[in-house]
Every structure is written in C-alpha cells, then in structure tokens.
Design a protein that fits this description.
Length: 429
C-alpha cells in the first residue's frame, strides 16, 4: 500500500495545468458511446473511475479507438446497447454506477452493477426509487439499498421527479433513463447541482430543456456523435489553488481548467477568506466554460460555508476544511450531510485527521466547526480509501512542522493519477 510523505514549504510560485475533468469525462464517453456516429473525445481523464465508465460503454457495444495519449475516437451504438453478460464493475465510482443504472434500466436485457467495498456501501435507493417509478426493475442483491444491483431492462415511462437532495448523479441517472423513456422526463432539483449532463446532452444534439432548477428530456432522442474536448478538472486544481491561497506571497496560475459556475464555488469562498483571484474565461465554446485562473496568496480568515453553495463545493469540502485550519478564526461548515455518504464518511474522516494535526474541531451532524490559525504539527493520517481526503491532507502537510505521512494513497488514482508527481514538481518549482 503506498503512502505520501510531505514536509513544510515556504510558498508557491508556479504555472500549471491539471488533468481532464472527472465528471465531464464520464458523461463524454457515455454520450459518445450512446450516440449515432463517431465522436472524437480529447482530454479524457484516464483515472480509475472514468476508465470504469469507458469499459462499461465498450461492453455495451461502443467502439473505442485510441488516437494518441490525449484523444480517442468513439463509435456509438446509436441508442441500441448490446447485452452485457458479465457484471459491470464500477470500482469506486458512484458516478459510473448511478448514471449507468439510468442507461441500463431502459435496455431490453438484464445487467448487474457492482463496485468495491466503499461503493457497495453507498446509498442506491436514491436512484432505485425514481427508476422504479418509471417502470424499471432494479433490485439490491443484499436487500440493503446498496449495490450489487440487478437491473432488468423494461419499457420506461417519463415521470416528473422532485429530487429530495441536490444530486447531479441522481439527476443525471434520470435524464439518461429519460432518453429512452416514453414521453418526457422532468427532473426538479432543490438547489442547483453540477449541470454537466445537461450541457453534454445539448452538445450531442439531444433536445433537452433547462430552466432554473428544472430539466426536461424527451424520450426517443438519439444523441448525435460530435467532437468534444474535456477541460481540466477544477476539483483537481482546487488542491493547488488552496495551497497557494494560504501561503502569503504565493502566485499560482492554472491554465485550461473548467470554470463551470456549478463547480467553482470554491473561488468565492477563497475570495471571502482573503485570497486574490483573477478568472479569464475563454470564449467560443459554451458547452463547458473554461479558461485560466491566477491566484495570489494572503493571510486567510475564517468563513461560513452553508446553504445553496454546498452542492457547488461538495467535492471541495475536504480542502476547504484544510483551509479553515490555516485561516484565522472559526470556520463553520453546515448543510453538508451528503458528505456522510461519499467515498467515505468525509465529516468523520476530516475531523479525525484535523485533530491529528492539532486542529480543534467540533463534528456536527451536517458539518464541522473548525478553529483555525493554530500551529500545526505534521501527523500520520489515513486516507480512509478516499482520494480527496488523501490529497487534502497532503496539502495540510505543506504547512505543518515536521513530517506528514498520508497512508493508503492508492485511492488517488480514482481521480488524479499524476497527483504525487505534480506535488513534487510544484514544491520544487
Ligand atoms: C458527481 C456528483 C457529485 C460529486 C461526485 C461526482 C458527478 O455527487 O460529489 O464526486 O459526476 O455527477 P452527488 O451528485 O451525488 O452529490
């Protein structure tokens, strides 16, 4: 099992790029795989999670030709998937499992979805319930609302569904199912979650209507193949942005990164905390806004993170908690109960790890109260098998006295295979 060791540094001054966006990569291969015709996808993230989606689409009949390191050509199934006899392995990827459940629910065959121990412990009722309302047969093998799932394809009926929690995975699952359903499928969110599926469906010429918190897709529309470039992953850039923000006198710029506002809530939080940020949005491609960021570090102060912004920073809460430890004052994070059912219980994991560094933190049901600005001592902490916990605490190690060891870091390859190498480069730049 691998580990990462880090020591304190003084500041950062570097220009970087980050690998392709994980959420967008999943959707790009799913839509290109379902489409009629060929699509050239560039910038695809070759992480464990996204490879699960790519392999699943290949198993369903999509043909994939690797063109070079960065590009592949996908010939889609034109809406007619082939039967898959073997279990579809989703590894650690909730996005693969929930989105594929939507696609499979409508196919004229049965399929089985499973994953690793963590994924098979995460709640799947949130997709099973609405899919069942649409007429799907979907069963949790252990009868515990978790995977392995058996999906027996059926003719689906469009429904109108109000999501009980803001979840892009659940929304996307239903929009994918809706592509194949009779009539129209309407999904209404309580607050805006990431909108990559909606944008990607429109990119692939699916007639989809979106208005504020409502998305409507009409059944029977086959996506049409089209080239697509995946921008850099803002959630990967977040680790370096946070590190630069918290070192006074630092400068970091990130080029070619996704700047979709349903993902970049961290920028407004960093600005509230005192960082100086410049955002340069490139024009000419409105499918996924992207561009460059430049951040200058200053002394940070505490912040309250709550309410509507939570879905837009849901993957950044581990690194926001690290920032809270580095900022003067008391940071409150609330309305983030969803963190309890991510790759691990992130509220428990963050609390335990922050305490190991000497940070006073109170765990609440839906968040944390973190006292920042205290001296930090390097610690040996667990990743809990969660990539974002591993990376966030490697960053905290850069600010801590003595050595920090993050144990069990293999999980980082689910979203950011080159993280450790880039960490070394950035430290030595
Ligand atoms: C994702 C949506 C989010 C996020 C996850 C990726 C996606 O989950 O936490 O890492 O790609 O749709 P929820 O939609 O379940 O909140």
């Amino acid at each position: 099992m691998s580990e990462i060791r880090v020591k304190r540094i003084k500041k950062l001054n570097v220009r970087i790029t980050v690998p392709g966006d994980k959420s967008i990569s999943h959707r790009a291969v799913m839509l290109a795989g379902l489409a009629e015709g060929k699509s050239r996808v560039t910038g695809f993230l070759k992480s464990d999670d996204c490879m699960c989606s790519l392999r699943a689409m290949q198993a369903l009949g999509a043909r994939v030709e690797v063109l070079d390191d960065d590009a592949m050509e996908i010939t889609g199934v034109a809406g007619e998937c082939q039967q898959v006899m073997e279990t579809i392995d989703c590894g650690n990827s909730g996005t693969s499992m929930r989105l594929l459940a939507g696609i499979l629910a409508a196919q004229p065959f049965a399929a089985r979805l499973s994953g690793d121990h963590s994924l098979n412990s995460r709640p799947m009722k949130r997709v099973m319930a609405p899919l069942t309302q649409m007429g799907a047969y979907i069963e949790s093998e252990m009868k515990n609302g978790c995977a392995p799932l058996r999906v027996s394809g059926a003719r689906l009926q469009g429904i109108t569904y109000k999501l009980p929690v803001a979840s892009a995975q659940v929304k996307s699952c239903l929009l994918f199912a809706g592509l194949f359903a009779d009539g129209s499928t309407t999904v209404i969110e309580p607050t805006q979650s990431r909108d990559h599926t909606e944008r990607m469906m429109k990119h692939f010429f699916v007639p989809l209507r979106t208005e504020e918190l409502t998305s409507v897709v009409h059944g029977g529309s086959i996506p049409q193949g089209r080239d697509f470039r995946v921008p850099g992953d803002f959630s990967s850039a977040a680790f370096w942005l946070a590190a630069a923000a918290a070192f006074p006198g630092s400068m970091l710029s990130v080029e070619g990164v996704g700047l979709n506002s349903t993902r970049t809530g961290l920028l407004s939080i960093l600005m509230k905390m005192g960082a100086q940020i410049r955002e340069y949005v490139e024009t000419g491609n409105d499918t996924e806004p992207h561009g460059n960021l430049e951040i200058h570090g200053r002394g940070l102060h505490s912040v309250v993170v709550e309410g509507k912004i939570i879905p837009n920073v849901i993957d950044e809460i581990p690194i926001i908690s690290v920032l809270a430890a580095l900022a003067e004052g008391e940071t409150i994070i609330k309305d983030a109960k969803e963190l309890r059912v991510k790759e691990t219980d992130r509220i428990a994991a963050i609390t335990q790890n922050l305490r190991a560094f000497g940070v006073p933190v109170e765990e609440t049901e839906d968040g944390m109260i973190i006292q920042g600005g205290n001296p930090l001592t390097g610690a040996t902490v667990e990743s809990f098998g969660d990539h974002r916990i591993a990376m966030a605490f490697a960053i905290l190690g850069l600010f801590s006295e003595g050595e920090t060891r993050i144990l069990n870091t293999d999980c980082i390859t689910t979203s950011y295979p080159g993280f450790e190498k880039q960490l070394t480069q950035i430290i030595n730049a």
